[in-house]
Amino acid sequence: MKKILFTALLALSSFTAFADNGVDLTLLKERVGDAAEIKGVKPSVIDGLFEVEVGGQIIYLTADGEKVISGDIYDLKNKKSVTEEASNKLRKAILATVADADKIIYKAKNEKYKVTIFTDVSCPYCTKIHNEVPKFNDLGITVEYLAFPRAGIGSRTAKQMQKVWCAENRTVALTNAKVKDVFPTKTCDGKQVAQQYKLGEQLGIRATPTMVLSDGEILPGYIKPDELAEYLGNK
Fold it and tell me: Which helix (H) or strand (E) segment is 91 a member of?
């Protein structure tokens, strides 16, 4: 979060967006100077506080540009986190930019739900959850995998995973990698693993497995198929 806040301070140069929302641009420029463009700024549910999208996260900025706030705004009347709701929408929009061709998809025949799972072939709980993909599918849950090598994009695991993403039959290659520790011998110039790792960082993914539901909600860790189906059915 500290990194995000620092990025926010560097990124607050989308001055047109701030001007449209009545923010004191002169003072803001004095405080943060020139930097990269942020994704979006809009008034929050609290007067005088602005909701800022930066680095795939939601933070809040006072109109005078003096204070940045990280944390949740909770609506007591409606019993919901306003921040989490905004974060879910943002994650959903970001994930929508990933083409199906860049995912490894295990599709349910009678699809009711879709979940995106950030995975790592060296992660024991990722293997455990992968062994239950047929159960997820039987419950109407399509599993869409994205790569998130925990050791980073320059790691041995990342290179192994890129071979999987380069395979002619990715679903078989991923199962072999997870269950048998067997990887394709051929590689390619694909960038999917690096791109998906960066996207995961943008979404705040820190560990694997991490599920992202179709509405953008994050569910970290291993979840049993029947428990997930029940949760999705009650949403």
Answer: helix 82-95
Q: Has residue 95 been placed in a domain? A: no
State how far Cα 194 lies from the chain centre.
Answer: 14
Give the pLDDT of residue 11.
46
> What's the chain's Rg over C-alpha atoms?
20
Beta carbons of 141 and 113 less than 8 angstroms apart: yes
pTM for this predicted structure: 0.80
- Does the residue 50 lie in any domain? yes
Which of 47, 72, 75, 123 is labelled catalytic?
A: 123
* 57 contacts 204 by C-beta, under 8 angstroms: yes
Amino acid 49: pLDDT: 85
> Quick check: is 150 catalytic?
yes
120 is catalytic: yes
For 134, the token pair is 């047929």
**Which is catalytic among the residues 64, 126, 170, 189?**
126
Segments forming the whole domain that contains residue 68: 2-90
